[in-house]
Amino acid sequence: MQSIGIDAVAVWSGKLKLDLPGTFAAVNNEDPEKYTVGLGLSASSLPDSYEDIVTMGANAAYRLLSRTDTSLSAIGRIDVATESAFDNSKPVSTYIGGCLESVMEGTVRHVDKGERKFACLSGTQCLNDAYNWIAADRNRGRAALVISTDTALYARGDAGEATQGAGAVAMLVDADPDLVAFSHERGIGSMDETDFLKPNQQFPSVDGKRSVQVYLARMREALEDFKAQTGPLHPEHFAYGPFHTPYPGMVRKAAVLAFRNTVRGTALGDQLTEEIGPQPTRAAFETEDEYIEAIRAYTDELADTEAYRRWYTERIEPTLRISSQVGNWYTSSVHLARISALLDAADHDRTLTGDRLLVGSYGSGAEAEIHAETVQPGWKDAIGSVAVESMLDRRREITFDEYERVHATHNHDSEVEMEPLTTPSEEFVFDGWGPMGERQYRFVS
Ligand code: CAA
After folding, report:
1. Residue whose CA is at the smallest distance from ligand 1 atom 21
2. 1: pLDDT confidence band, cut at 50, 70 and 90?
3. Confidence of residue 87 (pLDDT cuts 50, 70, 90)
């Protein structure tokens, strides 16, 4: 069977930066360590007044196509994943297609376009749609352009405000890819949940504490479903575990559960049993509460073992590198985790070809998906040209007053308008409204 996966990626960050421990915590009278230690975040990326999900998505896509010298005629579908859409009918991919046609040769007239919605999960679902389209040989030799793009803003005063972010990732999905190839197997954990939703409203209604529990429960089910297809896994079978990262502290909670699950029945598991005792089983306890208390105590002890700490430091922590500097990019967040892992491997000159990643995606509402990816021979060159750090370094740091105006400007119910804080160059910008309420865009040279 041919390998299908991600050939190349590009990132576009919102051009503003809010320092969370330094600026946001100070004004809110919070301990900065809630951010640096608890949530694991140093800053949020936020959109300037001329940026939105279309400009960020189009800019990521244009960067990707230009850098890889890919013409529009080589693209057969454009799928956009977002949970920040502003139109219930016209998909963001049509706007992005229009932007690309305005600066590139050729058209996207015979390109199938769509928009996927399932909270933060839909970027991964778009990758899977592209996989199926290519595997079914309906692509006529063309690649799929998958773009995840979000302005992840919460209502002012909501606890989620601490985890905001804005940015886009563009990915080219093709046969015989340079970066990673997708596994045929996918594990799913899905259930009707009301942890985070936007019932025809811009900012989410969130039950924050519950959302954490739902994330963990659905991830566990997805892992079980994945193992039902692959057979037992070992935590060290995977070079990295990129997970959906609403904030790094969430991944810290998920990682120890994934380790606890996959180490069972392995030699390393036997060694840990000698060190801290066996994993508690339900049968050994009279009540559910006693069992849960025992499993919590065991998990805390496991997280303190040398074996777990080394595994976490080598295989999970590197995936958090970008997220910790930009906040939650919703549909892009797991894709930033993959990019972070590959950048870490390149920085340490690791031999990664043929190694596997265990990729865990999550969307509130809720569904988790787990699949594996095999790193391809061209990975180092493909990731080396992504230049994420320079994009993050060029962000303009904003004061709290500026943050308040930026938030109000992007609030669909507010009349506030502001002058841009940065000067656009070589990028698409929002250029006002058309007669039917459509958004208009132009490229600034
Ligand atoms: N020093 C060290 N740690 C500190 C600290 C300090 N001074 N102060 C607080 N902390 C720790 C807390 O103990 C906590 O860690 P644990 O969860 O391990 O206990 C962490 O920092 C956060 O502190 P709080 O729980 O007090 O923070 P909060 O009440 O402001 O809420 C939140 C945190 C629930 C994540 C909130 O930001 C939120 O609602 N976020 C949006 C929802 C979300 O991201 N959910 C994640 C799962 S859902 C999902 O993944 C989909 C998605 O993308 C939205």
Report:
1. 38
2. confident
3. very high
| pLDDT digit string, tens, across residues 104-125 | 999 999 999 999 999 999 999 9
Q: How remote is the CA of residue 276 from the centroid of ligand 1, in Å?
A: 29
Amino acid at 181: A
**Ligand 1 binding pocket includes 205 (Cβ within 6 Å):** no
Contacts of 332 (CB under 8 A, 6+ apart): 123, 148, 149, 150, 167, 168, 169
What distance in Å separates the CA atoms of residue 54 and residue 52, rounded to the nearest whole number? Answer: 5
- CA atoms of 363 and 216, how far apart (whole Å): 12
3-state SS assignment for residue 412: coil
**Please, are residues 391 and 10 in contact by the beta-carbon 8 Å criterion?**
no
45, 155 Cβ separation under 8 angstroms: no
Separation between Cα atoms, residue 177 and residue 2, nearest integer Å? 10
DSSP 266-316: SHHHHHHHHHH-PPP-GGG-SSHHHHHHHHHHHHHHHHTSHHHHHHHHHHT
Per-residue pLDDT at 288 exceeds 90 = yes
* Structure-token pair, residue 91: 């998909």
* Any ligand 1 atom below 6 A from CB of 300: no
Indicate if ligand 1 lies below 6 Å from the C-beta of 162. yes
362 SS3 class: strand
Q: Which residue bears the tokens 């197997």?
A: 185
pLDDT tens digits for range 412-440: 999 999 999 999 999 999 999 999 999 99
Instruction: Please work out, in degrees rounded to the nearest 5, the angle formed at the alpha carbon of residue 275 by the alpha carbons of 269 and 278.
Output: 55
51: closest CA among 406, 401, 437?
Answer: 406
Give the pTM: 0.98
Query: Residue for token digits 């997280």?
Result: 303
